[in-house]
Amino acid sequence: MTVRKIGPVLATFVVANNMIGSGFFLLPATLATAGAVTVFSWIVGTALALVLGGAFARLAREYPDLQSADDYVRPSLGRDASFLATSLYWASSWIGNNAIAVAAFGYLVMLLPLDGSNPMVQVGGQIALIWLMFAVNLMGPKPVAKFQSLCVVFGLAPVAVVLLFGWGHFDRGIYDAAWNVSGQSDAGVVFGSLGAIFWAFVGLETGAMIAGLVRDPDRDVPIATVGGILIAGVVYILSSVLVMGIVPAQQLAESSAPFALVAAEIFGPWAALAIAAAAALKATGTLGGWMLVTGETGARAAQHGYLPGVFGRLNARGAAAWGLLIIASAMSVIAFLTLSPNVSEQFGLIIGVVVNLVVLAYAAAGLSLVVGTKQRRPGMRDRLLGIGALVACGLLLASTTLTMLLGAGVAMAIAWGLFRMFGRRQVPSAA
Q1: What is the pTM (predicted TM-score) of this model?
Q2: Can you tell me where the transmembrane regions are (predicted)?
Q3: For the chain, which residues make up each domain, given as ranges?
Q4: How confident is the model over 380-424, as pLDDT tens digits?
Q5: What span, in angstroms and rounded, lies between the C-alpha atoms of 396 and 419?
Q6: CA atoms in the 13 A half-sphere facing the CB of 84
């Protein structure tokens, strides 16, 4: 049976869609505590994402059947490094799902007769969404993909209207007043916000992961990766400037639905409900899609001996049911552990942890390009892209707090120690 391949345009929008999710909808509230100067953080973050995207595009050329970190890390850096890259990416994906649930319910609660300012209401709603998407994922990958596609179409269209027609309500006075409300220097705010902002670019690697689905990987993967990142970056930068120039920073920081506030200012109170519904739908679809990714990543890790075998068990519909059950339970615990007085604080805490983990996994990609293998010796372009990726990862890690960095380091050390003691030493045969 011949599988229909996709071209560079569709692949580009796949990459962009995988990035434009909860970060787009809730980061304005998180960044409002710093100020509008974070627009420069978005510009720098986009540049760093392009460097990392270039590294993944290069890896896709070297490994056209690439499906997971193990495919490119183990040949270059060995099994231990591959375990760390695979497990860090897997952990970052399911912990990050909590941030998506925070954003989704932050908007959804506006449509319900509930007190959205009550932390227990927020955490209860987040857990309900987690288990709802767990149930959807049990039906298998195809229903999840259909559900996500529906959410993309109906979720982003109203927000696009806000971005197109909101500029007539832009107030330069509000924007200037919000320029830097942190009490720190502009440079300090720009650098210190890179970690939070990079959450919105997690998913940039998916261009490389779909290399087997495009017509011409050598041409289409770089176009899709760079194009997708540029589309996402432009959307983020424009929306950041627009939001900060319509609603005062303090109101944004206290809101669980910043885009709904902006819509109300532009079109009236009715628009806030429309945007809340659209944003909740898009974020919920993103949650379902990333739970699918988490289940599939865990299943592949189990097949390679990096996770217990239970994560690799699939039900009759092809879903990693037992692994998803464990993940949904762990996500419910994380929701309680990160409970905060307001949504933006909880969201910021979760994405701080996730970005550290995923950046460490991205660093393995850069190092793989620099080292190469006996069969694939690295050329000058490989080394330059690899070094660029490592520098980008170093800057992102340096921008985070010492506590977050130490926490990621400890988690990595514990995971590696457990793997050395209990991990399966040989990859199971494919037979």
Answers
A1: 0.84
A2: 7-27, 39-60, 81-108, 120-138, 150-170, 190-214, 226-247, 259-281, 319-337, 349-372, 384-416
A3: 8-420
A4: 888 999 999 999 999 999 988 887 778 777 877 877 777 777 665
A5: 27
A6: 23
